[in-house]
Amino acid sequence: MKFFTAALFASSCFAAPLAKRAVTDADILQYALTLEHLENVFYKGALDMFPRQMFLDAGFTGAYYDNLKYIAHDEESHVEALTAALSAAGASPVAACEYNFPYKTPKDFVTLASVLEGVGTSAYLGGAGLIQSKAYLGVAGSILVTEALHTSLQRFNLGEIAPANPYGTALGLNEVYTLAAAFIKSCPATNAKLPVMAFPALTAVQGTPTAPGIEFQFQSPDAMPTGDFFVTFISGLSTTSVAATLDAPWIKTTVPDTAMGQTYVVLTNANTTALTDAQVIAGPAIIEVTPPSPTYDDSIM
Fold first, then answer.
1. From CA 53, how far away is CA 55, in angstroms rounded?
2. Quick count: other Cβ atoms within 10 Å of Cβ 246?
3. Which residues of the chain carry a pLDDT beneath 70?
4. Positive or negative, the Cα torsion across 284, 157, 169, 230?
5. What's the pTM?
6. Gap between the Cα atoms of 143 and 141, Å rounded
7. Quick one: which of 6, 7, 2, 1 has its CA closest to 38?
8. CA 173, CA 156: separation in Å to the nearest integer?
């Protein structure tokens, strides 16, 4: 996952707030469309770049390649549905941007696809609570299910545990935008300004997967902490702040037991179990944490 964290290292160029105002349903749809445009271009670009045989040579199956085409179809359908919903609401839908995806091989692509699908799932889960319209909420929930299916497919084909966490992980608007901004080179000037901002980058400087109890290092060149600070891990329904030490330029901490699967990590100014934007110093970074062996009780029926 190192190439992904390296890409995030460059995201600070998008750190200025774009617009500060109350979030509306139209904003949420524009935000979702921004992410769907990114995924739509991401998948079609890879399918254009890598023919079927290159996936086979990289160890993936023909069935997996066929599934990629279905995913590309899904992302295009999401773009069309959100575009139509915004147009029907009298809004001007945002257009696709220019992107920079750092994949050079099919394995690079699949690794990044797994992460992006996880972020997409977290974005819809985090944004759902902000939607006022029940009709729009139903559409968002429908897309969320599909994004989660995509995530499981990608994780399984990487040899990762697909259901690594019993619960989905919700992520806030600004945290998601921070991650997406790493891949956006420029957007049309006519696109609506969204009420989001990107935080300074936080970079994981070790390879993953890692495991609970392992010391892990991060770096945030544009936002080195001063005073009290914590490294906060967001995974499933858990938000866990862990004490950290600063050994410039490294920020060192220990992965908590609550982290499982794709986990988001932010540098915070508070020990928190309910993250707010005001607490975020930098991040998120993304790490993969191997979950513990599964257990179950036959007496619970």
1. 5
2. 12
3. 1-21
4. negative
5. 0.91
6. 5
7. 7
8. 27
